[in-house]
Structures are given as structure tokens and as C-alpha cells.
TrEMBL record:
TM stretches of this protein: none
Span of domain MobA-like NTP transferase: 40-127
Gene: cofC
Annotated family: Belongs to the CofC family.
Catalytic activity: phosphoenolpyruvate + GTP + H(+) = enolpyruvoyl-2-diphospho-5'-guanosine + diphosphate
Name of this chain's protein: Phosphoenolpyruvate guanylyltransferase
Length: 215
């Protein structure tokens, strides 16, 4: 059984602006409910991961903060308008210098706690202190970036982030973790995540949308 040694930082954008490429993906479902469900299912899986001691959600959204604090996450206020990498750095700073910190995107509704535990256990505990990352399913993005204790996270999330993380000295983790790698940016991604098995919040919205949409 993995030791709960990791602090996982999960940034969540303000819901009205979040997941813009998914807007309209589920007819009959308010967009903000879908964006919140993706984050809630991600955080639920992280909280259930035996390798995780604490989940820090970095957000400027009061609704997200209330929901995810209720689920058991610690909320760290987002630096206003600073963007995704600033949110990761802010969360990592709140975790403290001695923590093993991993940054994870909040759009992984098919994430399984055991996959996250396997990925985190593949990060060596000791020197030489190299950061590790897990690329998304297409291979160009990043879903997870992990740093050993005392090593800055130095996040380079955004378009082409797998290459950017590698160029900054981070090494890829190569395990077969389909739910972890399946980030959801578009309706095609959402369908792929549904084939893997969605967390309960997103699954309920998919079911409600299907029931409301004439065949
Ligand atoms: N706290 C915080 N989280 C962010 C910010 N930008 C993106 N995120 C989160 O980072 C993760 C990955 O970002 P994207 O996949 O680009 O998500 P997004 O920006 O909501 O989606 P698009 O509008 O489609 O680009 C998601 O879980 C977002 O909620 C930000 O400025 N602050
Ligand atoms: C944030 C990222 O990209 P996307 O918006 O494509 O999920 C990333 O992969 O680093």
C-alpha cells in the first residue's frame, strides 16, 4: 500500500470561463455544472488515492471552493488573473518546502485513485531530484507534474506542455494509465472518458442530458 506522502495541487478556473471548448457539449446541461462536475470527479479520485496526504484546490470561484472544501480539499485562493502556471506555483508554495508536491489538472473525470497512486509511486523519492510528468493521451499536453521534496515544481502547463516540461529537465512517466491521461477539453474527449468510465457527477450529467435529448 502506498504511503500518503503527496500533496496534490489542483487548479480550477472560475466556472463561467472554464472549459470553454466544451460549451454546449451536453444539451440541456448548464455549462457551469459540467465544468464543476469534471473538477469534482477529479478531486474525488485524488482524495481517495492512498498516496495522497492533502489536496490543495487553487481557485478564485466561490462555488468551486464551497463544493470542494465540503469534499475534503483545502482551498487556496487563486492569484487574480495570473493564469494556470501561477496557480500551480501558488498552490505548491502553500504546500510548504518539505512536501512532495504534484500538480494535476482538474479535467480528469475518468481518473482512478489506483492509477494516480501508481504514477506517484513511479516518482523516485530521493536524489537526484528530477521532476516527472505524465503526458495526456494525445501526447502533447500534461496531466500530472510531480516534484521531489525541496525541488520547485516549475510548471509549464499550456499548449505543447509535454515538450516544455521535457525541455525544462522533467522526465516522462511511461505507465499505462488511461483515466489519468484522459483530460477532457472537447466533446470528443468527453465521449472517450465516458468509454473509460466517468466519475459519478459527470456520469449523472451525461445521463440527464441523454434523457433530455430526443433520440
Ligand atoms: N486556478 C486556475 N486554474 C486554471 C486556470 N486556467 C486553467 N485552469 C485549470 O487548469 C486545468 C487545465 O486547463 P485547460 O484544460 O486549459 O482548461 P480551461 O482553461 O478551463 O479550458 P478552455 O477554456 O477550454 O481552455 C483545468 O482544470 C482548469 O480549470 C487559471 O487561470 N487559474
Ligand atoms: C493545460 C494544458 O492543456 P489543455 O488546455 O490542452 O488541456 C496542458 O496540457 O498543459
Amino acid at each position: 500500500m502506498a504511503e500518503p506522502t503527496w500533496t496534490v495541487v489542483v487548479p480550477v478556473k472560475r466556472l463561467p470561463a472554464a472549459k470553454s471548448r466544451l460549451r454546449g457539449a451536453l444539451p440541456g446541461v448548464p455549462h457551469e455544472e459540467l465544468a464543476l462536475a469534471l473538477a469534482a470527479d477529479t478531486v474525488r479520485a485524488v482524495l481517495a488515492c492512498p498516496a495522497v496526504a492533502e489536496v490543495l484546490v487553487v481557485t478564485g470561484d466561490a462555488h468551486v471552493a464551497a463544493e470542494l472544501a465540503g469534499a475534503g480539499a483545502r482551498i487556496v485562493p487563486d492569484p487574480p488573473d495570473a493564469g494556470l502556471n501561477a496557480a500551480f506555483r501558488h498552490g505548491a508554495a502553500a504546500a510548504g518546502r518539505h512536501a512532495r508536491v504534484a500538480g494535476l489538472t482538474a479535467d480528469l473525470p475518468a481518473l482512478r485513485p489506483a492509477e494516480l497512486a501508481a504514477a506517484l509511486s513511479a516518482v523516485p523519492a530521493g536524489p537526484p531530484g528530477v521532476r516527472r510528468f505524465v503526458a495526456d493521451a494525445p501526447g502533447d499536453g500534461t496531466v500530472l507534474l510531480a516534484a521531489p521534496a525541496g525541488v520547485p515544481l516549475e510548471p509549464r502547463f499550456g499548449a505543447g506542455s509535454a515538450e516544455a516540461h521535457a525541455a525544462s529537465g522533467a522526465l516522462p512517466l511511461t505507465g499505462d494509465w488511461p483515466g489519468l491521461r484522459r483530460d477532457v477539453d472537447t466533446s470528443v474527449d468527453l465521449a472517450a472518458a465516458a468509454r473509460l468510465g466517468l466519475g459519478p457527477r459527470t456520469a449523472a450529467l451525461l445521463g440527464a442530458s441523454a434523457a433530455a435529448t430526443p433520440a
